[in-house]
Amino acid sequence: MDSMTLIAVISIFTAGITTGIGTMGPAFSEGRAVATALTSLAQQPDASATITRTLFVGLAMIESTAIYCFVVSMILIFANPFWNHAITLGSGS
Amino acid sequence: MDSMTLIAVISIFTAGITTGIGTMGPAFSEGRAVATALTSLAQQPDASATITRTLFVGLAMIESTAIYCFVVSMILIFANPFWNHAITLGSGS
Amino acid sequence: MDSMTLIAVISIFTAGITTGIGTMGPAFSEGRAVATALTSLAQQPDASATITRTLFVGLAMIESTAIYCFVVSMILIFANPFWNHAITLGSGS
Amino acid sequence: MDSMTLIAVISIFTAGITTGIGTMGPAFSEGRAVATALTSLAQQPDASATITRTLFVGLAMIESTAIYCFVVSMILIFANPFWNHAITLGSGS
Amino acid sequence: MDSMTLIAVISIFTAGITTGIGTMGPAFSEGRAVATALTSLAQQPDASATITRTLFVGLAMIESTAIYCFVVSMILIFANPFWNHAITLGSGS
Amino acid sequence: MDSMTLIAVISIFTAGITTGIGTMGPAFSEGRAVATALTSLAQQPDASATITRTLFVGLAMIESTAIYCFVVSMILIFANPFWNHAITLGSGS
Amino acid sequence: MDSMTLIAVISIFTAGITTGIGTMGPAFSEGRAVATALTSLAQQPDASATITRTLFVGLAMIESTAIYCFVVSMILIFANPFWNHAITLGSGS
Amino acid sequence: MDSMTLIAVISIFTAGITTGIGTMGPAFSEGRAVATALTSLAQQPDASATITRTLFVGLAMIESTAIYCFVVSMILIFANPFWNHAITLGSGS
Amino acid sequence: MDSMTLIAVISIFTAGITTGIGTMGPAFSEGRAVATALTSLAQQPDASATITRTLFVGLAMIESTAIYCFVVSMILIFANPFWNHAITLGSGS
Amino acid sequence: MDSMTLIAVISIFTAGITTGIGTMGPAFSEGRAVATALTSLAQQPDASATITRTLFVGLAMIESTAIYCFVVSMILIFANPFWNHAITLGSGS
Amino acid sequence: MDSMTLIAVISIFTAGITTGIGTMGPAFSEGRAVATALTSLAQQPDASATITRTLFVGLAMIESTAIYCFVVSMILIFANPFWNHAITLGSGS
Amino acid sequence: MDSMTLIAVISIFTAGITTGIGTMGPAFSEGRAVATALTSLAQQPDASATITRTLFVGLAMIESTAIYCFVVSMILIFANPFWNHAITLGSGS
Amino acid sequence: MDSMTLIAVISIFTAGITTGIGTMGPAFSEGRAVATALTSLAQQPDASATITRTLFVGLAMIESTAIYCFVVSMILIFANPFWNHAITLGSGS
Amino acid sequence: MDSMTLIAVISIFTAGITTGIGTMGPAFSEGRAVATALTSLAQQPDASATITRTLFVGLAMIESTAIYCFVVSMILIFANPFWNHAITLGSGS
């Protein structure tokens, strides 16, 4: 098994695992935040403006960690410096 | 085992695992959000409009993490740059 | 072990695992949503229309993640591009 | 170990595991839904019609995920395209 | 290790594991359903007819997932198409 | 290691594991059911007839899953078709 | 490593594991049942006859699953058909 | 590594593991039963006779599962039929 | 690696693991029993005699399972029949 | 497999795992903090200024741990001293 | 790798693991007992003498299981009969 | 695989894992501390000065453990004495 | 790999693991004890002397288990009898 | 792979793991202690002096276990006796 194949294989595997595992935390957290927002709305309908605004800021913060994982996956698939280096080596030789 | 086979194998495996594991988090979270929405509706039927709207926004956010995983799986199966590179190499030589 | 066998083996295994693991999350979530719906109905029978409608929308969202997994399994079994490529190679040579 | 044996082995193993693991989620969920239905019936006997109807709809949704797993197992045992392809190859050669 | 032995070995192992693991979910769920039924009976003895009927329907649904696993085990032991194919091959040659 | 030894080894191992793991679920469930029955009896002594009857029906249902596992173990030890086939082959040759 | 040694080894290991793991479930369950019985006795001393009787029936049911495991272990150690077959083969040859 | 050594090794390992793991369940259960007994005594000092008697019967039942494990360990160390068979073979030859 | 070394190695490892794992259960249980005793004493200081006596009986029962593990470890280190047999063989030859 | 390939492979894998696992903790924590903030807002709408300010400070602290992981991943992909050393060695020789 | 090295290695590893794992249980239990003692003291300051005495007796019992593990570790490091036997063999030859 | 490559590989892997795992604890703890601070603020707005000050001291203590991990990672990447020793050896020879 | 290296390697690894794992239990327990002490102080400020004294005694007991682990680590690093024996052998020969 | 490389590798790995795992316990515990302190402050603002002092003593005790792990890591990286011995051997020869 040559070097390029190995780099391709590990990039594919890591990209999938990073997104697959890394989105579990944000998904749970957003579910929790949304669930609590609904409970709070039912308990204090008058504060719906503050609750909704805080919820959206929080969801954006949490979504950011999911995006970190997605970005790492995309970098590994489409902008992988190790893969580019290997291709350069391969085509140059 | 030649390079193309190995890339195909790892792409198939990763695609399945990414979707299989990555949809667990969103599924749990949506179940939690829906469950809390139902509890809130039963507790405060008058706020059903706000609750339903917040629920749908939240479900969309959570579903987005499931879609990240599904997108990575689809990219690995149908638009895999490493596989395309290997086919190009194979047909060119 | 030749390439086609290996691709077949990993496709079979991944298809089973993806569905087997990936349906656990939706199953739990639907059970939770249904359970909460029943509790809410018992607590607030007058809001049964809103509760039932929200429950069905939620179940559809959750079922969608189970269907993602099932779709990936079916793609791997019946519309696997890597397998088709291998067959094309095999029959062409 | 020839190709057909390997495909047979992995099909048998995957079929068993898919059903064995994949029915845990639905089983738990149905137990939860039934348990909550019983609690709700004890709490609000007058709403038994609505509760029972919602319970049956929910059980059907949950059972569907168990059936996905069972269908994948049955496909792997009795309608496995990779196995059929291998038999065709074997008998044709 | 010849092919038939391997198929026999994996069939035996899978049959045991499928039943061993696959009955845990239904067992827990039935225990939960029965436990809740007993609690409900103690809380609302007048609704015992409805509770008992709903309990039996629910137990039947849950038992069905255990039976899926048992059926797969029995198929693998006594009606295994891969094994039959291997015997046919073995006796024919 | 010849075929018969391997089949014997895997049969012994699977028989033990199936019973060892498979009886955990029923044991927990029966403990839960009995515990709830005792709580219910203490709470509503007048309904002891209904509670006891429901308990026994439930225990029978749960015990059935334990018996599935025990049956599979006994089949693997004393009525194993693969072992019988191997003995037939061995004595016939 | 000859066949008899391997069968002996796996029988010893399986016998220990089956009893070691398989008695955990019953032990927990009996602890739970006894604990609930004590709580119920403290709460409703007048129903001690019914509680004690139900407890003993329940303990017998739970103990039965522990006995299944112990029986399988004893069969594997003292009445193992595969071992007997191997001894018969060994002494006959 | 000859047969006797292997049997000795696996007997030692299994004996330790069986006791090490198998006493966890009873230990937890006895702790639970004793803890509940103490709570019940504090709540209903008048029923101390019944509580103590039920506790001792329950502890005896739970201890029995720990003794099953200890018995299997002792059998494997001091009355192991496979080891005795191996010694007989060794001394006879 | 000769037989005596292997037996020594596995005895050392098993002795440590048996005590290391096997004392976790009793330790937790004793902590639970003591904690409940303290709660009970704070709640019902008048029943301190009964509580203390029941606590000590219970601690003795729980400690017995820890002692089972310790005994097995000591037997494996200082009175190991397999080791003695190996030494006898070694010195006799 | 030469040294540069191995360093590339392990860098890719570690970068993905570090981000994938390391963002789970912050994601959960932010979900918890946001959820509690919403509950607090619903309970004490008058303190919304203090609550929001404390929430943002807390989210920044928690996000910092996620950024540690992301920074390590980026260093491993784009500023890896070991990789640079290997390239220097490779181009210099 | 000669016998003495192997025995030394496994003794070192087992000694560390036994203490490392075996002190977790007692540590948790002592934390629990101390925590409950503090709660009880706050709830019933008048019974501080009985509570403190019972706490110390309980801590001594729990500490005993930690000491079992520490003793086994020390025996394995400083009074290991297998190591002594190996040294005797080594120096005598 | 030469020594320098191996040291580089293990340094990369350990640096990532240490940060990835080691920031989970602090992240959870900070989430918990912030969440409790928000609850406390909502419950006792008058003590906001003391609560905020204690929160910040606590967050600093918790953050310190995250920084320990980050420092170890940075030392392993940029100030690794083993790597420096290897480079010195390599350039000197 | 010679004997001294192997002993050094396993000593390093075990020393780290023993401290790394073995301090988790005490850390959790001390956190629990301190947390309960704070709750008790808030609930019963008058008993602060007794609570603080009991807390310190308890912390000392719990810290002792952490110190056991640290002592074992230090012994393995700085006073390892197996390492000393190996050095003596090495320098003597 | 020579001895020095192996010792370096295992030292790097162990140092990272010890800090990475070993700081989880203290981090959780400090989070718990801080959280409880905040709850206590909100509940009993008058006892803030005692609560803060007890909190700081407790945090110092808990931090000590984190420092044990950090110290072991630093010893393994910068004052490793096995590494020094190996260097002495290497430079002396």
Automatic annotation (TrEMBL), chains A, B, C, D, E, F, G, H, I, J, K, L, M, N:
Show the Gene3D superfamilies listed in the entry: lithium bound rotor ring of v- atpase
Highest taxon, organism lineage: Bacteria
Regions crossing the membrane: 59-79
Name this protein carries in UniProt: ATP synthase subunit c
Query: V-ATPase proteolipid subunit C-like domain location, by residue?
Result: 13-76
**What keyword terms does UniProt attach to this protein?**
ATP synthesis, Cell membrane, CF(0), Hydrogen ion transport, Ion transport, Lipid-binding, Membrane, Transmembrane, Transmembrane helix, Transport
Gene Ontology molecular function: any one:
proton-transporting ATP synthase activity, rotational mechanism
Q: Where is this site: Reversibly protonated during proton transport?
A: 63
- Output the lineage of the source organism: Bacteria, Pseudomonadati, Pseudomonadota, Gammaproteobacteria, Oceanospirillales
Q: What does this protein do?
A: F(1)F(0) ATP synthase produces ATP from ADP in the presence of a proton or sodium gradient. F-type ATPases consist of two structural domains, F(1) containing the extramembraneous catalytic core and F(0) containing the membrane proton channel, linked together by a central stalk and a peripheral stalk. During catalysis, ATP synthesis in the catalytic domain of F(1) is coupled via a rotary mechanism of the central stalk subunits to proton translocation. Key component of the F(0) channel; it plays a direct role in translocation across the membrane. A homomeric c-ring of between 10-14 subunits forms the central stalk rotor element with the F(1) delta and epsilon subunits.
Location comes to:
Cell membrane; Membrane
What is the protein's major site of localization? Answer: membrane
Organism this protein belongs to: Onishia taeanensis
